[in-house]
Amino acid sequence: EVLTEDPETAFCTLADREDLNPEEGSIYHCLYQFTRNEKLTENNKLLCEVCTQRHYGPKKNIKSEKYVYTNAKKQMLISLAPPVLTLHLKRFQQAGFNLRKVNRHIKFPEAIDLAPFCTVKCKNVAEGNTKVLYSLYGVVEHSGTMRSGHYTAYAKMRSINSHLSDLVIRGQSPQALETEPVKGQWFHISDTHVQAVSASKVLSSQAYLLFYERLL
User: Fold this and answer.
1) pLDDT under 50 in the chain at which residues?
2) How far, in Å, CA of 153 to CA of 201, rounded?
3) CA gap 209, 95 in Å, rounded
C-alpha cells in the first residue's frame, strides 16, 4: 500500500543520521546500512497509479490497463519503537552452492540510540524527544559451523524496569527515564553451567541475537 506522505518529512528521522559516521563492523553500521535511502530506477521503478491515470485516464478493465512506472526513493525506518528491541544478526553467507557461517565480530554497545533510524513521526516517542535509548540485557552466541554447534547466552541480572509495563500494556511513551545502561551483574549460561562475567567479556562475544530494553 502506498500512502501519501509530506515529501518534506517522509525521509526525516528523529536525529540526524548523517552525524553518525558509524564504524564499519559495528551494530550502528548494520542499522545504518539497513535503513539507508535507496533509489529505485530502471528495472526497479515504482508503479505509479497517479501517473498512470494522468497519462491514460481511468480504466475500468484492469487486465487491459497499461501502467506507468517512475523513478522513486525508498527507505525503511522505524515507525513504532518497541519496548524490547531484538536484533538478529545474519551469520551466514552464500559461498557457491553452499552456506558459510560468518564468524566476524560485530561491535555492539551496552546502550544504543535508535533515534537516527526512527521516522520523525515515530508513534510512541514523546514530542520533542530526539533520543530513543535502549539498554542491553541479553546476548545469544553460537559456536561451531552451519552444520553443528552450540548456543550459549549472556544475561544481565538487573533491577526491574517498571516503565516497560507502561510500554507493553498501555503503549505509553516514556517521558523522562534513565539515559545510561541499567546497572547489574552479567552471567554466562551454557546448558546447566552459569558463571558471573564482566561486561567487557559480553561485549567481546560473537553475538547472534541481541536483546535491549527501552530506557527513553
Assistant:
1) 1-2
2) 12
3) 23
Which pLDDT score, from 0 to 100, does residue 198 have?
A: 96
CATH number at residue 90: 3.90.70.10
The cell numbers describing 97, all together, are 552452492
The pLDDT, as a whole number, for residue 188 is 97
The boundaries of the domain holding residue 144 are: 79-214
Confidence at residue 199, expressed as pLDDT on a 0 to 100 scale: 95
Look at the chain and report how many structural domains it folds into: 1
DSSP-assigned letters across all residues of 34-84? HT--EEE-GGGPEE-HHHHHHHH---S-GGG----EE-EEE---BSS--SE
Mean pLDDT (the chain) is 84
d(CA 112, CA 131): 10
